[in-house]
Known about the structure:
The protein is mainly β and 170 residues long. It is 9% helix and 51% strand.
Amino acid sequence: MSDSRLLTRQLLVLALAAAGLHTGPASAAGAPPLAWFAGAWQCAGKFEASGKPIEAQLRFEWSEGSGALVKHHDDRLPNSYHAIELWGANGPAGLAATIVDTFSGTRLFASPGWANETLAWTRMADGKPVERFTYAREGQDRLKVEWATSKDGSTFKLGDTLFCERLKAE
């Protein structure tokens, strides 16, 4: 199967899984928990190994009709990471996400959902966790994002950390 057909198929499966399903208990405002991310975020942090700074803008768009969240991740120069993500419900299994970027191609992640104020996405390979993104709410308009990888499936090494603030709508 060609790469483009595989990507189309994966996105279709995720979209169908998300359609009409909720992503857990509704928040106090009545919106599904993934909708909390909606909006634009300005982020700054560092790469763990080098200590070099990193800045990024995240944009989350909640799709009410599909029950899915679309995320755009754009690093600022001199870094060049750009990704589009689709997050949604995965039936009783929790949540599923597809991330597409030019460095790693298409990757599939799973999450059991929110645990207190943290949402962790894990990618598996050969039955072992190999990559994880962790999103931690730090108040209504603050977010910490950590990216980590694992070579042995049990110990994660932190790659980078971003501290984000929600931008006010104009």
